[in-house]
Please model this.
Amino acid sequence: MANHRTLRRSLVVTVFVAFSLLLFSLGAFAFHDFSDVDSAAFYHDDVNWLKEMGITLGCGGTLFCPNDPVTRGQMAAFLHRASRVHETPGFSLSIVDTGFLGQYTATTIGVDGRPLISYYDVTNGDLKVAHCVDLACSAATLTTLDSAGDVGQWTSVAIGADGMGIISYLDATNFDLKVAHCSNLACTAATLATVDSLGAVGQFTSITIGTDGLGLISYIDGSNYDLKVAHCSNAACTAATGATLDSAGDVGSYTSITIGGDGLGLISYFDLTNIDLKVAHCSNTACSAATPAIVDSTGGLYTSITIGTDGLGLISYYASGSGDLKVAHCSDAACSAATPTTLDSTGNVGLYTSITIGADGLGLVSYFDGTNGNLKVAHCGNTACSGATLTTLDGAGLVGFYTSITIGADGLGLISYYDDSNGLKVAHCSNNFCLPYHRSR
Model:
C-alpha cells in the first residue's frame, strides 16, 4: 500500500515562493495581514507575498490556517493563479525642469487630476511651479510665479476650497512669509501676498486647508525662534491672522501641518533646544492657540505629518542622533503621546522625509539616503507603520533631496525631488508598494 503524506498550507506556500525566486526578485516584505501567522514563522513573508499576489486569500477573514491540509482542488487553484502572475516595472522617473533648480519642492494633485509642483529656482532666486501634462508627470508646463527678490525657498502647496493651488514660501530678501494664489488650474499666473513681515519669518512653511475652507500655514519666527501659524482671511490668503503656538526654547523648524480627525490643525516640528520631535494640536479652527507635546526625544528633523485611516497622526522624521528614518504613530487625536518606530537604519538615512497615505490605506514615505545619495521609499506594513518595505527608486548620481510625496488621481504614489545633476525630477509609482518590479496578475 502506498504511503501518502499530507501537505500543510504553510509548506505549500513556501514551495511556491521558492519557485517564484527563479522568476522574480522579491522585495523585503514586512506584512502583518493574517492573525494566525506568527511573525517569527519561517513562512510568514511567503504567506503574505502570495496573498498580495492573489494566489491565496486565506481560509476566511484574517485567518490563513497554516496547519490545515491542502486538497488537490486547492493546489490546482494555486497553480492556475500563479500562472497569471508577471512582473511589471514598479516606477518611472522623469526630469521635469533642468538646471540649478528643484530645491524645496512640494507637490499636490489638482482638481484636474494632474500633479502641481512648487519649487525654488536657485539661479534666479525665483518661485516656480510645474503643472504636469499627465498623471505620471512625464513633462510639465513651467511658470515663474514670483521673481521679486530672492523668493521661493521652503515652499508648500495645497489645493484651496476654490479648486486653485495655494503656495506658501519664504521671501528671503525681506524675510517675510508670502503666499501665491493660483489664478487658474495650471497656475500659469498667481496673486501674491505678504502675510507676515514681523521680524525674520517664513522659513519651514507648511500649508493645509482647514475645515473652514481657509488656508492654515505653520512656520518659524526666526527672530524669536518660535513656532507660528497664520490663518488665512480669505481663499486667496491676501491677508492672515498670526499666532505664536510654542515659544519654549528654539522651536518651530521643519514644520508640517495637516488637519486631524477631529477637524483641527495638527503640526509636527523640531525642538532644537532639547533635540525633540514635538506636535502642536490646535485648540480651534483658526489655531489661535495650541497644546504642544513631546512625542520623541531622539531628534525630529525633516518632519512630515499625515492622518492615517485610523484617524490618528502618522509622522515621518529624521533621528539626528542615530541617523535613522523613523515614524511616530500618535496615540490620540491630539497626539499627546506616540509610538516611535525605526524604519531604516542602514547608513545615514531619513533626511527630507515626506509621508502620505496610499490607496491601500497604508503609509508611504519618501526620503533621502545620505550615505549613498539615493532616493528611497518606505511602504508601511500596517496602519501604525511598525514595519515597512524599503526600496531605492533613484540612485543615478546624487538624488533625493527635498522629497515631497502625494497620491495621484490613479491611486499611485508620486514623488517630486531634487537631482543635483539634472534639477527637478519626479518618480511615479506603478504599484502601491512602489517596488522596482511588481508581480501583478
Confidence is low (pLDDT under 50) at residues 18-32.
